[in-house]
Amino acid sequence: MLKTLPRHQINSSAWDACVAASSQRILYGYSWYLDAVLPSPDWKWFGLVNVDKNGQYQAVMPISLRRKRVAGIAYRWVVHQPFFCQFLGIFSREEAINSMPFLQLMQQAFRYGSTFSMRQPLDNPSLFDTFRAQTTHVLDLSIGYELVSQRYSRDRVTNLRRAYLANWTVIDSTDPEPLLTLFRKHQANSIDGGVADWAYDIVRNLLIDLNKRGLAVLRYATRENRIEAGALFVQEGNRLIYLFNAASEAGRQGNARTLLIDQIIREKAGDQLVFDFESPEKSSIRDFYRSFGAREEPFWTVRWNRLSEVENFARKVVNVVRGR
To answer: Is the model's pLDDT at 317 over the cut of 60?
Structure first.
């Protein structure tokens, strides 16, 4: 039976066991990860859960929600994709799963979807008002470093050689503050609307959880005792995710992130792993990831609006008030 459950009614152990047993297994689907990237009071999540007669979760689908505010006053919850979570979807113990009941129930329970990204191909895209194909970039590390590195572009090989000649010292750490400082000083201003303080808190709290589970590798590139670049890699199941990174101008000019990525690829190559670059839509960054020989892997982003005319009118008024 398919149910809609609020977070406090979800059995975390049963949920996580279902995610781990599914062919769709990925870091983003675990209850503890969702708790970390969807902090109250302005974020929360529900679960669509298919429960068998023994109470075992056979299939689950997390639905992430964000509270909308006007002049500091909360007025509505909407489906919204969280940070550090490029896609969600259905996690099923069975290989073949009919997504239609989940998607229909999602729209019945949550009538406005601002943005929601899913890994599964959609059986019926017409369910949604907007349907857009997107891609991340991935590398198959199981083929070994020699074959992986042969697919690096000529420019990437040249820049990697320069990076190794640049006298970088690479250190492991559990402290996210240098990474957050680099991002705040050198990357945040390029993001429309800036980056709120609570987003940095998500990284801090998430890293605590990741370290508890032994899933994170946080590395910095230093020179003359100055940290100039950092990268957070997370491995869970058969996927190694390039979750977060930042660099100063000196780090960019010295190809420090190329070095950090190449080093983790060297270490993990030969394992049954997929390296996921978590590609944004910015073309220059996607080109950078392609230069490592990465191939595209699709996912899909949808939007929908099932609000009444009165609710839509109120929504338009709110957008005018907010200057949109």
So the answer is: no
- Give the contacts of 276 (CB within 8 A, at least 6 positions apart): 136, 137, 138, 239, 240, 241, 242, 297
Q: Give the position of tokens 């998607």.
A: 103
Q: Is the pLDDT of residue 71 over 90?
A: no
Domain 137-293 indexed as CATH 2.40.30.20? no
Kindly state the tokens that stand for 270.
């030969």
- H-run or E-run covering 12: helix 12-21
Q: How far apart are CA 269 and CA 32, in angstroms?
A: 28
- For the chain, the average pLDDT equals 92
Residue 229's region, left for phi above 0, alpha for psi from -120 to 50, else beta, is beta
pLDDT band at 320 (very low <50, low <70, confident <90, very high): very low
Q: Which helix (H) or strand (E) holds 49?
A: strand 43-51
Of 13, 82, 96, 15, nearest in space to 48 by CA = 15
What is the Cα–Cα distance from 164 to 260, expressed in whole angstroms? Answer: 10
- Positive or negative torsion for Cα 295, 154, 172, 83: negative
Please tell me the least confidently modeled range out of 54-58, 72-76, 319-323: 319-323
Q: Per-residue confidence at 102, pLDDT binned at 50, 70, 90?
A: very high
Residue by residue, DSSP assigns 96-134 as S---HHHHHHHHHH--EEEEEEESSPPS-GGGSSEEEEE
Which residue is it, tokens 């420019």? 155
Strands 239-247 and 274-276: parallel
Question: How far apart are the C-alpha atoms of 254 and 109, rounded to whole Å?
Answer: 50
Give the lowest-confidence range in 110-114, 141-145, 236-240, 251-255: 110-114
Fold of 2-128+299-321: Aminopeptidase (3.40.630)
Residue ranges matching CATH 3.40.630.30 in the chain: 137-293
